[in-house]
Amino acid sequence: NNLANQIAAGEVVERPASVVKELVENSLDAGADRIQVAIEEGGIRSIHVSDNGQGMDREDALRAFERHATSKIRRERDLFSIRSLGFRGEALPSIASVSRLTLTTSAGEGEAAACVRMDGGKSTAVEDAVRSQGTEVLVEDLFFNTPARLKYLKTVNTEVSHVADSMGRLALAHPRVSILLTHNGRELFRTPGDGKLLHVVHALYGKQVARQAMSIVAEDMDFSVTGMIIRPEITRSNRSYISTVINGRFIRNISIVQAVLRAYDTLLPIGRYPITVLSIEMDPKLVDVNVHPAKLEVRLSKEKELCRLIEEEVRQLFRRQVL
Ligand code: ADP
Ligand code: MG
Asked: Where is the DNA mismatch repair protein S5 domain (predicted)?
């Protein structure tokens, strides 16, 4: 069984960033609106995620490490209609199988908190603990028992930038949640969680960018698009600065990126792209979920219509700012 977990870990847990992503998605699913992530040495030494979500009682805390013990909806094709980000019950057992993990959780005031310790997938201790409502997970010595995987990791800086990227995506998709990310005690970013996308953009990209952002608001019968865009001349950026969130999930879609770029009808200055955040609401039935959920690519029916809507709106914004 632990072998099965380690094999699953091969898919779910590629590097520290994937651990952080899974843990933070669990915090989001638990309804947290404050999430703190602290990593040490690129997350290779340790990853600590704490939240103020609903927490778990002792029994659930133990059950969480059983494979496929999800408390969430199980049907994969409902991916874009369900609210929860996790649904397979694989992440915690997988992460636990390749690290030393401590989970401390409390389901609320008056409830006893529990602390579960796992070492390479084996439960070593379950103790009483004290904490306010919510959950914290400490993952230490990632891949200590899978040396091949450990060797495959890149430099600390590379791992940090992967963590920051994936946290940035989650922050953009969840402006109502306050997210703090630190590395070796140094703050990388902190979003206020006040629901304002502009404040997330500020936290991730800085004041200069936030100040120049233009709001996007567009709608047709099928789509409602909000977001913001910054002219490419203003700041260094690459394609990955064009972010798309569909129904609260960060996705990748090449056609949408191209629609944004088409809207800028002059040649792009070298090394500069329009930093863009698009948050799109649509009927989940229009999202083709016949794709691997861990990969972010999705296909959309009515993609052409959506791209046209985005292109027109962005083109108008660019023109207006030039005038
Ligand atoms: P999944 O997210 O797919 O359900 P996980 O392995 O990530 O599977 O988590 C297993 C279960 O543990 C979740 O379904 C949830 O019930 C519980 N859980 C994990 N993390 C948290 C958390 N931060 N707060 C509350 N419950 C959690
Ligand atoms: Mg999960």
From this structure: 201-319
**Distance (Å) from CA 67 to ligand 2 centroid:** 11
15 Cα to the center of ligand 1, angstroms: 19
Is this complex's ipTM strictly greater than 0.95? yes
Say if residue 154's pLDDT is above 70.
yes
User: Pocket of ligand 1, candidates 25, 33, 92: which has the most ligand atoms within 8 Å of its Cβ, to mutate?
Assistant: 92
CATH topology for 206-322 is: Ribosomal Protein S5; domain 2 (3.30.230)
- Look up the pTM and report it: 0.89
CA atoms of 102 and 95, how far apart (whole Å): 11
Residue ranges of the domains in the chain?
2-190, 206-322
> Residue 169 CB: number of other CB atoms within 10 A?
21
Q: Does domain 2-190 have CATH number 3.40.228.10?
A: no
- What atom of ligand 1 comes closest to residue 94's alpha carbon? 6
In the predicted structure, residue 32 carries a pLDDT above the cut 90: yes
Percent pLDDT > 70 in the chain is 90
Check if 2-190 and 206-322 are the same fold: no
Res. 86 pLDDT band, cuts 50 70 90: low
For residues 23-40, give the mean pLDDT: 96
Residues 267-276 pLDDT 10s = 888 889 999 9
Residue 181 confidence (pLDDT):
98
**Beta carbon of 52 within 6 Å of any ligand 1 atom:** no
